[in-house]
Write a structure and sequence with these properties.
single chain; 209 residues
Protein backbone atom coordinates (compact mmCIF):
# COMPACT_ATOMS: atom_id res chain seq x y z
CA UNK A 1 0.00 0.00 0.00
CA UNK A 2 1.46 3.35 -1.02
CA UNK A 3 1.86 5.91 1.73
CA UNK A 4 -0.42 8.31 -0.13
CA UNK A 5 -3.25 5.80 0.12
CA UNK A 6 -2.38 5.08 3.75
CA UNK A 7 -2.63 8.82 4.48
CA UNK A 8 -6.21 8.90 3.23
CA UNK A 9 -7.32 5.66 4.91
CA UNK A 10 -5.45 5.76 8.25
CA UNK A 11 -3.66 9.06 9.08
CA UNK A 12 -2.35 7.71 12.43
CA UNK A 13 -0.76 4.67 10.78
CA UNK A 14 0.67 7.00 8.14
CA UNK A 15 2.35 9.14 10.82
CA UNK A 16 3.65 6.04 12.63
CA UNK A 17 5.31 4.86 9.41
CA UNK A 18 6.45 8.00 7.59
CA UNK A 19 8.10 9.80 10.52
CA UNK A 20 10.42 6.90 11.48
CA UNK A 21 11.08 6.22 7.80
CA UNK A 22 12.14 9.78 7.03
CA UNK A 23 14.22 9.99 10.20
CA UNK A 24 15.92 6.66 9.42
CA UNK A 25 16.85 7.79 5.92
CA UNK A 26 18.20 11.09 7.27
CA UNK A 27 20.22 9.33 10.01
CA UNK A 28 21.72 7.14 7.28
CA UNK A 29 22.90 10.14 5.26
CA UNK A 30 24.13 12.17 8.24
CA UNK A 31 26.24 9.19 9.34
CA UNK A 32 28.03 9.19 5.97
CA UNK A 33 28.82 12.87 6.29
CA UNK A 34 29.87 12.69 9.94
CA UNK A 35 32.35 9.84 9.38
CA UNK A 36 33.73 11.61 6.29
CA UNK A 37 34.19 14.75 8.38
CA UNK A 38 35.99 12.80 11.10
CA UNK A 39 38.29 11.32 8.46
CA UNK A 40 39.26 14.67 6.98
CA UNK A 41 36.55 15.70 4.50
CA UNK A 42 34.51 18.76 5.57
CA UNK A 43 32.35 18.81 2.41
CA UNK A 44 29.17 17.64 4.16
CA UNK A 45 29.69 20.10 7.01
CA UNK A 46 30.28 22.99 4.64
CA UNK A 47 27.15 21.98 2.74
CA UNK A 48 25.07 22.13 5.92
CA UNK A 49 24.28 18.42 5.77
CA UNK A 50 25.41 17.41 9.27
CA UNK A 51 21.96 18.18 10.61
CA UNK A 52 18.76 16.23 11.30
CA UNK A 53 16.67 18.97 9.67
CA UNK A 54 14.66 17.07 6.99
CA UNK A 55 14.58 20.09 4.68
CA UNK A 56 18.36 19.83 4.21
CA UNK A 57 18.13 16.23 3.04
CA UNK A 58 14.87 15.59 1.20
CA UNK A 59 15.04 14.78 -2.49
CA UNK A 60 11.89 15.78 -4.45
CA UNK A 61 11.75 12.63 -6.56
CA UNK A 62 12.76 10.38 -3.66
CA UNK A 63 10.04 11.91 -1.48
CA UNK A 64 7.44 11.51 -4.23
CA UNK A 65 8.42 7.86 -4.66
CA UNK A 66 8.10 7.42 -0.90
CA UNK A 67 4.45 8.47 -1.04
CA UNK A 68 3.56 6.67 -4.28
CA UNK A 69 5.54 3.44 -3.97
CA UNK A 70 6.31 3.16 -0.27
CA UNK A 71 10.08 3.51 -0.70
CA UNK A 72 12.24 6.53 -1.36
CA UNK A 73 15.56 8.19 -0.76
CA UNK A 74 17.19 11.40 0.43
CA UNK A 75 19.77 13.51 -1.38
CA UNK A 76 23.14 11.79 -1.00
CA UNK A 77 25.46 13.60 1.38
CA UNK A 78 28.38 15.03 -0.66
CA UNK A 79 31.71 13.38 0.11
CA UNK A 80 35.05 14.21 -1.51
CA UNK A 81 37.08 11.04 -1.03
CA UNK A 82 40.21 12.87 -2.18
CA UNK A 83 40.15 14.79 1.11
CA UNK A 84 40.23 11.67 3.26
CA UNK A 85 43.44 10.83 5.08
CA UNK A 86 43.21 7.20 3.90
CA UNK A 87 41.16 6.84 0.73
CA UNK A 88 40.76 3.07 0.90
CA UNK A 89 39.70 2.96 4.56
CA UNK A 90 37.64 6.08 3.98
CA UNK A 91 35.71 4.44 1.17
CA UNK A 92 34.92 1.46 3.40
CA UNK A 93 34.19 3.37 6.61
CA UNK A 94 32.20 6.21 5.07
CA UNK A 95 30.13 3.80 2.98
CA UNK A 96 29.55 1.54 6.00
CA UNK A 97 28.53 4.42 8.26
CA UNK A 98 24.96 4.72 7.05
CA UNK A 99 24.43 0.96 7.29
CA UNK A 100 25.87 0.84 10.82
CA UNK A 101 23.69 3.79 11.86
CA UNK A 102 20.58 1.95 10.69
CA UNK A 103 21.64 -1.27 12.46
CA UNK A 104 22.29 0.64 15.70
CA UNK A 105 18.95 2.43 15.38
CA UNK A 106 17.21 -0.95 14.99
CA UNK A 107 19.22 -2.40 17.88
CA UNK A 108 18.15 0.31 20.33
CA UNK A 109 14.52 0.04 19.22
CA UNK A 110 14.55 -3.72 19.87
CA UNK A 111 16.45 -3.22 23.13
CA UNK A 112 13.79 -0.77 24.29
CA UNK A 113 11.07 -3.33 23.50
CA UNK A 114 12.96 -6.03 25.39
CA UNK A 115 13.66 -3.89 28.46
CA UNK A 116 10.08 -2.66 28.74
CA UNK A 117 8.21 -5.66 27.31
CA UNK A 118 6.56 -6.29 30.69
CA UNK A 119 5.03 -2.80 30.50
CA UNK A 120 3.31 -3.56 27.19
CA UNK A 121 0.23 -5.51 28.27
CA UNK A 122 -1.10 -4.77 24.79
CA UNK A 123 0.33 -3.03 21.72
CA UNK A 124 0.71 0.69 22.34
CA UNK A 125 1.80 3.49 19.98
CA UNK A 126 5.32 3.41 21.50
CA UNK A 127 5.51 -0.37 21.06
CA UNK A 128 4.31 -0.09 17.46
CA UNK A 129 6.74 2.73 16.66
CA UNK A 130 9.68 0.71 18.03
CA UNK A 131 8.73 -2.26 15.87
CA UNK A 132 8.37 -0.02 12.82
CA UNK A 133 11.72 1.68 13.54
CA UNK A 134 13.44 -1.71 13.84
CA UNK A 135 11.84 -3.07 10.66
CA UNK A 136 12.58 0.03 8.57
CA UNK A 137 16.20 0.29 9.69
CA UNK A 138 16.93 -3.40 9.21
CA UNK A 139 15.42 -3.18 5.72
CA UNK A 140 17.46 -0.06 4.86
CA UNK A 141 20.65 -1.69 6.12
CA UNK A 142 19.95 -4.90 4.22
CA UNK A 143 19.16 -3.04 1.00
CA UNK A 144 22.31 -0.93 1.18
CA UNK A 145 24.51 -3.96 1.81
CA UNK A 146 23.69 -5.27 -1.67
CA UNK A 147 26.79 -4.58 -3.84
CA UNK A 148 24.99 -2.87 -6.71
CA UNK A 149 25.93 0.75 -7.51
CA UNK A 150 25.01 3.24 -6.19
CA UNK A 151 24.16 1.29 -3.02
CA UNK A 152 26.70 1.46 -0.21
CA UNK A 153 27.57 -2.22 -0.55
CA UNK A 154 29.18 -1.55 -3.93
CA UNK A 155 31.47 1.12 -2.47
CA UNK A 156 32.42 -1.14 0.45
CA UNK A 157 33.33 -3.81 -2.11
CA UNK A 158 35.37 -1.26 -4.07
CA UNK A 159 37.36 -0.51 -0.93
CA UNK A 160 37.92 -4.19 -0.19
CA UNK A 161 39.19 -4.99 -3.71
CA UNK A 162 41.23 -1.79 -3.84
CA UNK A 163 44.28 -3.50 -5.38
CA UNK A 164 42.12 -4.59 -8.30
CA UNK A 165 40.25 -1.49 -9.45
CA UNK A 166 36.59 -2.54 -9.82
CA UNK A 167 35.93 -0.87 -13.15
CA UNK A 168 32.84 -3.01 -13.70
CA UNK A 169 31.15 -1.65 -10.57
CA UNK A 170 32.04 1.92 -11.54
CA UNK A 171 30.64 1.38 -15.04
CA UNK A 172 27.41 -0.07 -13.63
CA UNK A 173 26.69 2.98 -11.46
CA UNK A 174 24.77 5.01 -14.11
CA UNK A 175 22.50 1.99 -14.61
CA UNK A 176 22.32 0.87 -10.98
CA UNK A 177 18.88 2.32 -10.32
CA UNK A 178 17.41 0.50 -13.33
CA UNK A 179 19.12 -2.74 -12.26
CA UNK A 180 17.55 -2.41 -8.81
CA UNK A 181 14.11 -1.73 -10.29
CA UNK A 182 14.56 -4.73 -12.62
CA UNK A 183 15.50 -7.04 -9.74
CA UNK A 184 12.52 -5.74 -7.79
CA UNK A 185 10.22 -6.39 -10.76
CA UNK A 186 11.61 -9.92 -11.21
CA UNK A 187 11.03 -10.70 -7.54
CA UNK A 188 14.73 -11.22 -6.82
CA UNK A 189 15.38 -8.18 -4.64
CA UNK A 190 12.83 -8.90 -1.90
CA UNK A 191 14.13 -12.39 -1.00
CA UNK A 192 17.69 -11.04 -0.99
CA UNK A 193 16.75 -8.18 1.34
CA UNK A 194 14.90 -10.63 3.62
CA UNK A 195 17.93 -12.94 3.73
CA UNK A 196 20.34 -10.13 4.62
CA UNK A 197 17.77 -8.73 7.06
CA UNK A 198 17.54 -12.14 8.76
CA UNK A 199 21.33 -12.15 9.15
CA UNK A 200 21.22 -8.68 10.73
CA UNK A 201 18.43 -9.72 13.11
CA UNK A 202 20.41 -12.84 14.05
CA UNK A 203 23.46 -10.68 14.81
CA UNK A 204 21.38 -8.29 16.92
CA UNK A 205 19.87 -11.28 18.74
CA UNK A 206 23.35 -12.45 19.72
CA UNK A 207 24.25 -9.03 21.14
CA UNK A 208 20.97 -8.35 22.96
CA UNK A 209 20.97 -9.55 26.59
Amino acid sequence: MGLLRLLTTDPLAFALVVIPLLFSIIIHEVAHGWVAYRMGDPTAKWSGRLTLNPLRHLDPIGTLMLFLAGFGWARPVPVNFNNLTDKRKGLIFVSSAGIMANILFAFFALLFIQLFSSSFSRPTPIYNVCHIVAYINITLAALNLIPIPPLDGSKILMGIVWQRPPYLLARLEPYGFFIIIGLLYLGILDPLIRLIGWMIVTLIGIVLP
